[in-house]
Amino acid sequence: MKLSRRTLLKAGSLSALALTFPQTGPAVAKAAPGMPADRSGAQIPTICGMCKASCPMLAVRHRNGHLRLTGNPVSPIHGNTLCARGMAAVQLLADPDRLKYPLKRVGPRGKGVWKRITWYEALAEISGRIKKAHADFGPESLALLCGSSSATFIRQLYEGLSSPHIYDASRSHSAAIRELGYGTVFGQVPDPAFVPELDQADCLLLMGCHVGENNQVSQLKQVCDFLNRGSELVVVDPRFSAMAAKADHYLAIRPGTDTALLLGWMHHILAQGLYDPFLAAQVVGMEELWEAVAPYTLTKTAEITDIPAEKIRRAVETMVAAAPRTVIMPGGHLSWYGTDVDRVRAQAILTALLGSRPSPSLPAFDFAGQRQPLSFAPLINQIGSGKIKVTALWGQNPLQAEMAPYKTMVALKDADFIFACDVLPSEATLYADIILPEAAFLERLDALHSWDIGEQTMTGCRFPVAAPGHECRDPYEIVKNIAEGCGQGRLFAARDIRHYLEMSLAEQGTSLAALQKAGGLLLQNKEAKSRTPLEADAATGPEAVLVPPDTSARGLTLPTPSGKIEFYSAWLAHNGFSPLPLYVAPDQAPEGYLRLLYGRCPAHSLTRTAGFTWLNHEVPENELWLAPSVAEPLGIVDGEEVRLENRDGFRSLQRLKVKVTPGIREDCCYMSHGFGNRSPFIQDAYLRGVSDSGLMSRGRVDPVSGTRGMRDSFVRLLRSGHDS
Ligand code: SF4
């Protein structure tokens, strides 16, 4: 069957499937009624800023003045496709709720009582606070919570000030775990946004990976092409996800037992001799791996995972039959159970046993630059205790991105000084002393962006489509001014962002004009560029660097300490971690509670889109997936509204609708992330749906990455009349 968007929507049986489509048809008409479908107007290349995927975009200004966003066909991996969020981004330009002027808090923290001040006053106060804190208490007194694409320059300032407290939520919950998992096995790290091997693959394994719901255009296009070839799809998920609906093998796993399944699959491959006999010479730790997986027979694995042994066997033999053209999707959001680096290492080792490797053109994992992880909870405690004197929230809302928001609120209330820079007044900005209005991504030039697309690197730039609204400014200008005010102007030598980009592009032998003329994207063969290591996590100070690897025995081909694939990682062992992946059973649900699972909705992957009326028209709120065997004894019917309460007594602020479906196991329930915004200043998002992170108050911390797992929360359902 050929997969079109329409068949995907139908076959998925799930309303939450990808709203990703090329730029023709009714979606355009809905997005901009009356807009002509031609592209005769001026085209400005830019880059979408609605999620981390950063898809290349074209802004088309039609003769009637309408602005329309499309994909940039120059990109070989994105084409002219955008997802619904990207297409809706034009709404941001005229959003009435946008931050318009610098503001100073004049009421209690959290209440959102501000007065308008000048840029001069705002920047002078921030610079003065940073300068004084740095001089009196050292770099440890400064913290930065960031995550948006505009944080490049504020990071540079904080790094220049040697702050050990730079916390990037999106990196901690995804890339940091993936780098440690794959990097310690292969010395290289795959990027889930584009997996070159997938173009030739005969089998794909998705473990808890919600392709199509967690939209990334390049990834979804690759997976649709893969499915159109009729290749084999294996999906492991406690929930019958959009991709599960298309799977040849769907394994409804007991939540939290994925590592055991991976170890069981490895056991079967090793016990049956289903791997390349020459592999042993290419790896370190074959015998140790065999010992580690020995307990995980098919029977034992079936018992742990609650998947029939025969299903486990058939799935792995399908993957073996397709090897080495079997791909395991590396995954995006990976902070599940606090044992996540081990799970991702197990994925990487299974990849190697199947004879596959990450693309050799990927950047090398920076063993020597790795640092002790910076965990969110200790950092927020330091902010609340006053040990940290200046906290910056840069396009970051920890009240949705992190668990235990009520603890975070208390800490932010008690903080010494907070400044925020954002486009919309998110709930975290309510705690800021000074708020800076940032130009929306369509209104600014930003630092260069690079995409790894196999043998080539693609470089692009976010060209402004409109002038900054109100008094909003671009992040380079803001940070340069702060830096100059606190004596760090040398870090920002360029006059402005345009000058900065010209300097960066001149190093690559090109210019902004050439980049624009090339359609906004430059494609370069990787051989022409030097292979740079992945950026080391700048989350901690120099004293916290982990023990570097011993590379004296290196002699083979991979950028690991041994030069081989490392099933056994001596580097992890030297740093006090398990050298082989271990399975640790997750917490058990208390009587009467269900494990809370969450995922993404294609219209609202993050809370930042929750106020977009076009997207809310498509998906107005989240709902709670519940198995009939759970709903019926409680007398709960489909569509009924319930409130949720976790085991620590935290309740959802709103009720949400129940979706009774056999598409979820009876030991868990599910909702999508991105709802339940608590800022009354984003009117169309305020208390729309329920916040998943608001129901998370406990979780194990992964010892290797330092990131807290977010799937160890349990909730019970309170029916109307029992929830006061
Ligand atoms: S996936 Fe969608 S929201 Fe994300 S960058 Fe691409 S178009 Fe924008």
Annotate the secondary structure layout.
Blueprint: H1 5-12, E1 20-22, H2 26-31, E2 42-47, E3 56-61, E4 67-71, E5 81-83, H3 84-88, E6 103-105, E7 114-116, H4 119-137, E8 142-146, H5 152-160, E9 165-168, H6 169-186, E10 203-207, H7 217-228, E11 232-236, E12 249-251, H8 258-271, E13 283-284, H9 286-293, H10 298-305, H11 309-322, E14 326-328, H12 340-353, H13 376-385, E15 390-394, H14 398-401, H15 405-414, E16 418-422, E17 434-437, E18 449-453, E19 456-460, H16 475-485, H17 497-507, H18 512-517, E20 521-525, E21 565-566, H19 570-574, E22 594-599, H20 613-618, E23 623-626, H21 628-634, E24 641-646, E25 656-660, E26 668-672, E27 714-719
Parallel strand pairs: 8-9, 8-15, 10-11, 10-14, 11-12, 13-21, 15-16, 16-17, 22-26, 23-25
Antiparallel strand pairs: 1-5, 2-3, 3-4, 6-7, 6-17, 18-19, 19-20, 22-27, 24-25, 24-27
Bound molecules: iron/sulfur cluster (SF4).
Major sheet attributes? 7 strands, mixed
Return the structural class: alpha/beta
* Topology, number of strands: 27
CATH fold-level topology of the domain at 110-164 and 374-438 and 476-503: Rossmann fold
Describe this structure in words.
With 724 residues, this protein is α/β, with parallel strands linked by helices. Among the domains are: 5-94, no CATH class; 110-164 and 374-438 and 476-503, Rossmann fold, CATH 3.40.50.740; 594-719, Barwin-like endoglucanases (Beta Barrel). The longest helix has 19 residues, at 119-137. It has a 7-stranded mixed β-sheet with strand order 7-6-17-16-15-8-9, sandwiched between helices. Strands 23-25-24-27-22-26 form a 6-stranded mixed β-sheet. The chain is globular. The protein is built from 21 helices and 27 strands. α13 (376-385) runs parallel beside α15. Iron/sulfur cluster (SF4) binds at residues 48, 50-51, 53-55, 82-83, 85-86, 215-217. Iron/sulfur cluster is lined by residues 48, 50-51, 53-55, 82-83, 85-86, 215-217.
